[in-house]
């Protein structure tokens, strides 16, 4: 029997094996519960998974999906209503949209010239034109959309979904975020906060890296699978011996699960990222054959590949360090450039999910952290931030197709009819996944927390 003194110390084991089995790739999982556990929803779900397409910077609703004829008529005049008490920047007179709108599909939903491909999918889309939040700054608004709070670090909506439902695939995490932004909340937008770390979003690259080069960090093993397996077995044996002395320890048991998942991820994630077996027709559908749409098209295709393998929540982020959707000036050029990059990939994702029979139980959510004002910023061509009333849309996953709900005022500044708060959006998303947002709670610091805090109603009017 090997004497105890001949065994490596715990410090040596961690030092020599960390890169070997990819634990640093999932260092955020070191206090997790098992991510392979499938948990039962509260009631029969309409959706099994979510794909969230985040348009960072704030696309303008009145230039994309929510036309305002009075804005065209009164271009150049002062806004006739009362402006918000808190604004991000000084704005001037009314600014009409530089794009024309047409009605599409059997539902007759108006869409601007910015989205000719998405326009062909409107009969599968449910538009919510009355979303509103509380914060006119990017960081606060992004945190509000992602976590339900704009002033505290809270678990992200993807983490809540992972906590509530677990993963359908023992070799993949429940929550993956593809090329997430590192700005305006950064990690907190996909973090788990006080939830078990297994619910944390696993990032694939970040917004500054082309998705073709994006990887889970340290995913490539430094040693053979056989050596790693023996290292893991030794570590597990040491940890189990410790558990016999201390009794149950959720954090330590989570570490064991984390190392095992990291080991399995080494083969599972590269397989998902390998799109070489996808047909040229499919790649073209997503716009991967065009340099303008290639990057976001890859994100959308990877989202479908993760989703079909059992990942519960997949987020793709359209962002870049320079332009984003944040046109305080040069609106016409900036929005046109951004829309061109995403229009075909978004339509391709919807068409592909539908063709594969996945759209009915996959909830696709599109939107930014806020919209933009109907007034000009500066002296020419720009719009300020507007959290008071903007548009998001959903498709599949149990929402009414070809449907529009809610409305902003005649100029598109304030949500006015059938208002939907961000908390209501979260409550509705969880409901579609079979979870009661008031029952999905986690005890922390002496109180029960939930994604919707003490707010939120399920918008039953948009559920099919």
Fold and architecture overview:
This protein has a single domain (41-218, 278-462), classed as 3-Layer(aba) Sandwich (Alkaline Phosphatase, subunit A), CATH 3.40.720.10. It contains eleven helices and 18 strands. The protein has helices at 10-17, 69-73, 116-119, 138-147, 157-165, 225-246, 250-273, 280-285, 294-308, 331-355, 422-432, and strands at residues 49-55, 91-94, 101-104, 109-112, 125-132, 175-178, 202-204, 313-318, 362-367, 371-377, 383-386, 390-395, 403-405, 407-408, 415-417, 420-421, 442-444, 447-449. The strands form five sheets. Strands 1, 5, 6, 7, 8, 9, 12, 13 and 16 form a nine-stranded mixed β-sheet that branches. Strands 2-10-11 form a three-stranded antiparallel β-sheet, with no helix packed on it. Strands 3-4 form a two-stranded antiparallel ribbon. Helix 6 runs antiparallel to helix 7 and helix 9 packs parallel to helix 10 (331-355). The longest helix is centred in the last third of the chain and has 25 residues, at 331-355. The chain is globular, with a radius of gyration of 23 Å. The relative contact order is 0.22.
């Amino acid at each position: 029997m090997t004497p105890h003194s001949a065994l490596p110390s715990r410090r040596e084991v961690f030092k020599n094996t960390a890169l070997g089995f990819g634990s640093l790739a999932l260092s955020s999982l070191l206090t997790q519960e098992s991510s392979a556990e499938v948990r039962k929803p509260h009631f029969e779900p309409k959706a099994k998974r979510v794909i969230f397409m985040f348009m960072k910077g704030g696309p303008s609703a009145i230039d994309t999906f929510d036309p305002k004829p009075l804005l065209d008529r009164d271009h150049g005049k002062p806004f006739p209503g009362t402006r918000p008490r808190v604004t991000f920047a000084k704005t001037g007179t009314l600014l009409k949209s530089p794009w024309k709108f047409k009605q599409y599909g059997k539902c007759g939903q108006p869409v601007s010239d910015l989205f000719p491909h998405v326009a062909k999918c409107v009969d599968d889309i449910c538009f919510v034109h009355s979303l509103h939040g509380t914060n006119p700054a990017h960081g606060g608004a992004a945190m509000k959309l992602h976590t339900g709070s704009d002033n505290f670090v809270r678990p992200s909506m993807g983490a809540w979904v992972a906590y509530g439902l677990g993963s359908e695939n023992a070799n993949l995490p429940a929550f993956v975020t593809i090329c997430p932004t590192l700005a305006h909340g950064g990690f907190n937008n996909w973090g788990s906060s006080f939830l078990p770390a297994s619910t944390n979003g696993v990032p694939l690259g970040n917004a500054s890296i082309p998705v073709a080069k994006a990887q889970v960090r340290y995913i490539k093993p430094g040693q053979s699978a056989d050596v790693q397996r023996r290292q893991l077995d030794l570590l597990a044996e040491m940890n189990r011996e410790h558990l016999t002395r201390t009794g149950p320890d959720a954090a330590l048991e989570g570490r064991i699960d984390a190392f095992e998942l990291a080991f399995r991820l080494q083969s599972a994630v590269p397989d998902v990222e390998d799109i070489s077996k996808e047909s040229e027709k499919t790649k073209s559908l997503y716009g991967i054959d065009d340099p303008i749409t290639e990057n976001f098209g890859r994100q959308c295709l990877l989202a479908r590949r993760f989703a079909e393998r059992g990942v519960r929540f997949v987020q793709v982020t359209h962002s870049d360090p320079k332009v984003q959707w944040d046109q305080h000036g040069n609106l016409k050029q900036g929005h046109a450039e951004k829309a061109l990059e995403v229009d075909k990939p978004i339509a391709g994702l919807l068409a592909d999910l539908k063709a594969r029979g996945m759209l009915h139980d996959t909830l696709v959510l599109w939107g930014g952290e806020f919209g933009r004002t109907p007034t000009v910023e500066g002296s020419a061509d720009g719009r300020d931030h507007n959290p008071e009333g903007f548009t998001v849309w959903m498709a599949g996953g149990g929402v009414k197709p070809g449907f529009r709900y809610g409305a902003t005022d005649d100029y598109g500044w304030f949500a006015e009819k059938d208002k939907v708060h961000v908390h209501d959006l979260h409550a509705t998303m969880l409901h579609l996944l079979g979870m009661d947002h008031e029952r999905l709670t986690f005890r922390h610091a002496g109180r029960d927390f939930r994604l919707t805090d003490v707010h939120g109603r399920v918008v039953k009017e948009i559920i099919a």
